[in-house]
CRISPR-associated exonuclease Cas4
Amino acid sequence: MKYSEDEMLMLSGIQHFYFCKRQWALIHVENQWVENVRTIEGKHIHEKADDPFIVETRGDIVIARSVPVSSSEIGLYGIADVIEFRRTKNEGVSFSDKEGLWMPVPVEYKRGEPKDDARDEVQLCAQAMCLEEMLGLKIEKGYIFYNSIKRRTEVDFDKGLRASVIKLSKEMHSMFNEKKTPKARREKYCRACSMEEVCQPKVTGKRCRVKDYIKKGLAEE
Ligand code: SF4
C-alpha cells in the first residue's frame, strides 16, 4: 500500500509512538506539546546538526545536514540530521561534481545515553527506509550519536528492525485516522515524559481526549 501526500505523518513521531502510544497521540493527534528539560536539551543538540543545506566534504565522505526525507511506502516524512555519503566501489549515488559512487549513511544526534529499548534505532531505520525509496538503493547501516557519551553507536538495518518500522507506521496511521487517544498507563518512565503534565496519568486512566477531560473539569467547576 502507498500513502498519499495527505496521509503522510511525521517520521520523528515514531520514537514517541514506540515509547508511549498515548504520548504520540497527545502530540500528533491532539496537537498538545509541552517542553521539559529533556526536549529543550534535545533541541539544542539538534541545532548543531540542523544547519540547512550545508554540504561539506571530508576526504572520502560527503556530509549533508538537515536532509528532507519521505516514503510513500511507510507514509512518513521528516528531516534527517546528517547523511554521510561514503565513497564505494559498487553501489551508491553519484554527484555531478565528484567521481565515483557514494553510499548514504544516516546519522542521528540524540541527547543522553543509548536507551534500553529500540526507539532511537526504529527512528533511524525509518529514515534509512525513506532514503532507500528516494534513491533506489539498499542501506545496510547507520549511526546514532549520543551526546552524553560523545560517541556513535552503529545500527544494522536488519529484517526485524525494518518489520518494526512497518508495523509501527501502520499502527500510527490507523490511530491517526481513528483520532482516538489511548488511555494512560502510569509507569516508571512517565517521570521522564515531556507530556506528563498534560497527560495526567494518575487521573486519566481511561480512554478520553485530554481536551475533553479539561472541558469536563471546567464544566464541573
Ligand atoms: S505521562 Fe506516561 S502515560 Fe502519559 S504520555 Fe507520558 S509516558 Fe505516556
User: Anything to note?
Assistant: The beta strands are 9-10, 55-58, 61-71, 76-88, 101-110, 141-146, 151-156. The chain has a mean pLDDT of 86. The longest helix spans residues 159-178.
